[in-house]
């Protein structure tokens, strides 16, 4: 903790007046600025601390903190905050004051019960996901959606003076109210939250040469800005390639992410090492730079003959089609990573499921790309009938998108490990990873309206003013990428992962998007040599500070474990260098690993294991005032709020998956014999 003489100055709201606030000055206006609003130059931050009342699943605010640059104000009531906002409004000279809030969605739930927000005052990315909100001349912005980092990680990355302090020391379990006296340590915790955020925002703007006019609202905004400029001269090509509404509907059905699955013959077994992990380096950038994409308009295929689709594929065409499959079975007993996903099938009948993947079915329908189709044909036998199809010609992605990938890849590689360049390394790494995310953003995503008028309204509603087809047409006018580029990026990436699965064979334990975990020795040399040639011809390679040249798309070693166990997709644990690690969706990695370690390690990672207080939470939104209540010997007014309920997470499996594992264990002798031969 800081000593008293170095601790930042604290201004209690009840001891200041309007004239004590810092002077607001105007931010430098960019030449291109055409907005209606002018901004103050001062960076501000706001935060609240709340007490949860689990017996009624409600929360109340007991302290708020507001930073105007390094001037920090602490208040205890909503009335004080209303007064402060009024003062700032008077002192702002008609300009807006930007106030960053880390996870604005949380604070906004409370503020929306204190201030009235019209629909035009609130910009939401989704229901309960607030990006920006305006009250009077104060513009609240979400710094979490700008950075995608926790406040602790944010202040650590930018190495600011006022780091986020430990929440464990603060002890959120203590019930505090507006009249609770706060210790110096508790006040310092509050101060650091807003001062550290202000300092981080300044570092972010310095890094990208931004000010409060130009800084994006979201992390994706950075890469959109770069790619939009890079694609300026290729706008007509994008317009020409843009999908029609009918094609777009099929693209939405065909899109899927990474291939994540566990080998059912090894699931629920502790596998002694060495278990190796190999990752594809920069998989999505590699696909976008070095592979071919449907860059020409899609044309409808009028044939209903499925063999005609095969001929189109043999001729090197990009094909998107809706197909019906009957009498579906995997080819052979040991298809360990079945490819057809349950959640992408339609009209499914009589299916045998392997943790969300189809092993058998009497009938199903699915929309696929030509890349998916070739994997399905390799893995399954079936009878097929074509429902509808569209074809396009393959070509390279537009230069602007490819060059952006190459630029960020080179900078990331060249800056890695260079002292003093850590922030620029992270910036380029994030920009590189964001290009793919930008390419799969839904162009017909509806606006979310904040609706706080009337009695007990639904607060967040979709704007239904335009049809999906009209939204697609509107997005086309300003487009600098096409949705099919993202669809084919993940399809190519799944094919690259499938190549790794084939190399590992029956020794594969688990795969996830760009990673294979396996036993035994498996040689990726021949595969990597071919991929390296593609990377060189595409330009996705760079030399690091040590003189080592790196190539996108190749498989590289990424760890060796002395033990491993999986219970299915996104549920695994392993020991590396004597340390236990877990990956379980919804469970904190560190807290979860500590809990599992206390329970016995890998052997405890079984169905029914309970992770207590390991990061899984449930947000309960209370949209109406509860009013005055009596709690802990005092009267407290409970207004609109959100209650965070800590939840246990129980490691479980669906009944059908448990039964499938039981049947698979009939081959357990084969597994143990194989392991014995490997490590004899």
Plain-language structure description:
With 680 residues, this protein is of the alpha+beta class. The protein has 20 helices and 32 strands. The strands form 8 sheets. The chain has an 8-stranded mixed sheet with strand order 1-4-3-2-5-8-7-6, with helices on both faces. The two termini are 55 Å apart.
Could you give the order of strands across the largest sheet? 1-4-3-2-5-8-7-6
In whole angstroms, the N-to-C terminal distance is 55 Å
What's the tally of helices? 20
Largest sheet: 8 strands, mixed
- Average per-residue pLDDT, rounded, comes to 93
> Per the principal axes of the C-alpha atoms, what is the gross shape?
globular
What would CATH call the class of the domain at 10-216? Alpha Beta
The level of helicity is: 25-40%
For the secondary structure, the number of strands is 32
| CATH topology value of the domain at 10-216 | Nucleotidyltransferase, domain 5
Oligomer type:
single chain
Low-confidence stretches: 1-5
Strand content: 25-35%
Q: Please give the radius of gyration in angstroms.
A: 28 Å
């Amino acid at each position: 903790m800081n000593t008293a003489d170095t601790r930042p100055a604290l201004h209690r709201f009840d001891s200041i007046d309007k004239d004590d606030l810092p002077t607001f000055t105007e931010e430098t206006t960019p030449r291109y600025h055409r907005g209606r609003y002018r901004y103050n130059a001062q960076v501000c931050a706001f935060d609240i601390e709340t007490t949860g009342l689990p017996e009624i699943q409600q929360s109340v605010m007991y302290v708020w903190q507001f930073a105007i640059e390094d001037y920090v104000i602490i208040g205890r009531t909503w009335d004080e905050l209303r007064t402060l906002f009024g003062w700032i409004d008077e002192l702002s000279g008609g300009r807006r004051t930007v106030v960053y809030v880390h996870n604005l969605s949380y604070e906004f739930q409370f503020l929306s019960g204190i201030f009235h927000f019209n629909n035009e005052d609130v910009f939401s990315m989704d229901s309960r996901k607030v990006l920006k909100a305006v009250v009077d001349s104060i513009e609240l912005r979400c710094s979490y959606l700008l950075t995608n980092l926790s406040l602790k990680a944010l202040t650590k990355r930018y190495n600011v003076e006022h780091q986020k302090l430990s929440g464990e020391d603060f002890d959120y379990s203590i019930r505090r109210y507006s009249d609770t006296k706060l210790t110096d340590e508790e006040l310092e915790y509050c101060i650091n939250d807003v001062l550290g955020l202000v300092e981080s925002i300044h570092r972010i703007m310095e890094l990208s040469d931004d000010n409060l006019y130009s800084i994006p609202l979201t992390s994706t905004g950075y890469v959109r800005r770069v790619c939009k400029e890079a694609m300026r001269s290729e706008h007509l090509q994008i317009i020409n390639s843009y999908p029609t509404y009918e094609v777009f509907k099929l693209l939405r059905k065909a899109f899927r992410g990474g291939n994540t699955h566990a080998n059912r013959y090894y699931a629920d077994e502790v596998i002694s090492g060495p278990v190796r992990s190999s990752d594809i380096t920069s998989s999505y950038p590699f696909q976008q730079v070095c592979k071919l994409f449907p860059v020409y308009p899609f044309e409808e295929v009028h044939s209903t003959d499925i063999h005609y689709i095969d001929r189109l594929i043999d001729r090197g065409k990009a094909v998107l089609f809706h197909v019906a499959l009957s009498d579906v079975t995997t080819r052979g007993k040991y298809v360990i990573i079945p490819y057809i996903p349950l959640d992408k099938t339609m009209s499914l009948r009589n299916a045998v499921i392997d943790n969300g993947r189809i092993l058998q079915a009497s009938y199903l329908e699915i929309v696929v790309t030509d890349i998916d189709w070739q994997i399905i044909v390799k893995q399954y036998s079936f009878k097929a009938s074509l429902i509808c199809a569209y074809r396009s010609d393959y070509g390279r992605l537009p230069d602007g998108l490819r060059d952006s990938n190459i630029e960020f890849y080179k900078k990331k590689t060249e800056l890695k490990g260079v002292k003093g360049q850590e922030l620029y390394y992270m910036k380029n790494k994030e920009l590189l990873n964001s290009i793919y995310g930008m390419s799969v953003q839904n162009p017909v995503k509806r606006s979310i309206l904040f609706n706080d008028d009337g009695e007990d309204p639904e607060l967040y509603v979709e704007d239904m003013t335009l049809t999906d087809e009209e939204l697609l047409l509107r997005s086309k006018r300003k487009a600098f990428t096409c949705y099919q580029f993202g669809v084919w990026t993940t399809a190519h990436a799944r094919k690259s992962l499938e190549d790794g699965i084939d190399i590992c064979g029956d020794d594969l334990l688990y795969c996830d998007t760009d990673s294979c975990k396996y036993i035994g020795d498996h040689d990726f040399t021949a595969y990597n040599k071919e991929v390296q040639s593609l990377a060189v011809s595409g330009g996705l390679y760079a030399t690091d500070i040590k003189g080592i040249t790196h190539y996108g798309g190749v498989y590289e070693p990424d760890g060796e474990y002395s033990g491993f166990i999986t219970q299915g997709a996104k549920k695994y644990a392993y020991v590396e260098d004597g340390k236990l690690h877990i990956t379980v969706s919804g469970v904190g990695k560190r807290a979860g690993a500590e809990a599992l370690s206390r329970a016995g390690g890998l052997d405890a990672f079984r169905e029914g294991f309970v992770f207590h207080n390991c990061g899984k939470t449930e947000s309960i939104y209370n949209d109406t005032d509860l009013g005055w209540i009596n709690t802990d010997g005092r009267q407290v007014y409970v207004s609109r709020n959100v209650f965070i309920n800590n939840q246990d997470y129980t490691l479980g499996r669906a009944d059908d998956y448990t039964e499938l594992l039981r049947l698979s264990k009939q081959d357990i002798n084969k597994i143990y014999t194989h392991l014995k031969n490997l490590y004899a």
